[in-house]
Design goal:
By secondary structure, the protein is α/β, with parallel strands linked by helices. Helices cover 31% and strands 16% of the residues. It starts with 30 loop residues before the first helix and ends in a 5-residue tail after the last helix.
């Protein structure tokens, strides 16, 4: 940008020229405001017609932070991912949770022990696998598991319905994990759900869209979901932290019936323990254009699978049925790992829920 403007480290987008900030006036249509808008339109590529509606009323302190066009966000692009759990992962989780030995599972599947073990290890379907007796033993749905075995993936969820939602996938400890950022397009208030391993892409999005991070919601306290909590709280010390953990400070613990406003968005929560003692599902409503609700579920359920629960499988499965799969079919499910899906797709295809 001309006039001595710099770039922001987080996003790489030009910062508003400092010399322009004193010219801002709260009076719409004043010559000072028109000059600033014209300069931004020319140098930032952001139409002044968009800025006039809301940006001219921003406090000067906000204008002095990294700037980008405050018009409607471009449609979100949800990355295509493979399933978090392969056929082998599902079989291993189910076998462990039902206390089934590999030998017993192989017998039910009509396979040699070596062939069954190879299927668990590789995730590749063994020829002549007998799904019905195997799934009866493992408490899975045979038809749905067979779909997973033959490559089922959730259909495109239509990301354009939720323009102010972003998936942030980061890697560490040999895995990837999803965090989610949502915001209100009018107020620019934002909420983050989990942190993942790396705060840098979160900071970049906040800078790119000119957001004010108000809330940090934790789905559960496993390390991969909260690894970047320190840098985030250091950057945003006033952010309100919300958790289902009994070990969290009292001010951060969720209380029954509590709801939270993020601009016009509303965030409610449901307890979904099993995979984790403090498992929480957050349900976000009030999206522009009447878009369906969004459920941020942590590891309670994945596309085609669910988080490992071992001896707590009945509890985990029951809570998912009660609090997640009871939501309307178009509800978007945002899991902690793997691709996004919907309630209807999981009702129809998830083998853990016959």
């Amino acid at each position: 940008m001309g006039g001595g403007g710099g770039t922001t480290e987080a996003s790489g987008w030009p910062a508003l020229t400092p010399a322009l900030t004193p010219a801002l006036s709260p009076r719409r249509g004043s010559p000072a405001v028109i000059r600033v808008l014209a300069t931004i339109e020319r140098e930032e590529g952001c139409p002044a017609s968009i800025l006039r509606g809301e940006a001219v009323m921003r406090p000067l302190a906000v204008w002095e932070t990294p700037f980008r066009c405050l018009g409607p966000a471009p449609a979100a692009t949800f990355p295509r991912m493979t399933l978090e759990d392969s056929l082998g992962d599902i079989l291993r989780k189910a076998r462990t949770s039902t206390h089934t030995t590999p030998e017993a599972a192989a017998t039910e599947a009509g396979l040699t022990l070596a062939a069954y073990a190879a299927m668990e290890d590789s995730g590749q379907l063994a020829a002549h696998t007998q799904f019905s007796p195997l799934c009866r033993r493992l408490s899975l749905c045979d038809m749905k598991l067979e779909r997973i075995a033959h490559g089922w993936l959730p259909a495109d969820v239509g990301a354009g319905q939720w323009r102010e939602l972003r998936t942030i996938t980061t890697a560490g400890d040999g895995m990837t994990v999803n965090a989610f950022l949502v915001w209100d397009p009018a107020t620019r208030e934002a909420a983050l759900f989990d942190t993942g391993f790396d705060a840098a892409p979160i900071f970049a999005l906040i800078g790119e869209f000119g957001l004010q991070l108000r809330h940090l919601f934790i789905t559960h306290s496993h390390g991969d979901h909260v690894a970047a909590i320190g840098p985030i709280r250091q950057r945003f010390p006033a952010v309100a932290l919300h958790s289902g953990s009994a070990h969290a400070p009292a001010a951060q613990r969720l209380t029954p019936g509590a709801t939270f406003a993020v601009g016009a968005l509303q965030v409610a929560f449901r307890e979904t323990p099993g995979h984790a003692d403090d498992g929480i599902t957050y349900v976000i409503t009030g999206w522009p254009g009447g878009a369906p609700a969004v459920a941020v579920v942590g590891d309670a359920i994945f596309a085609g699978s669910m988080g490992g629960a071992r001896d707590l499988l009945p509890l985990a499965r029951g809570k998912v049925i009660e609090h997640i799969l009871s939501l309307p079919g178009p509800t978007l499910i945002c899991p902690g790992h793997g691709p996004l899906t919907t309630v209807a797709q999981e009702q129809a295809n998830n083998p853990w829920f016959p």
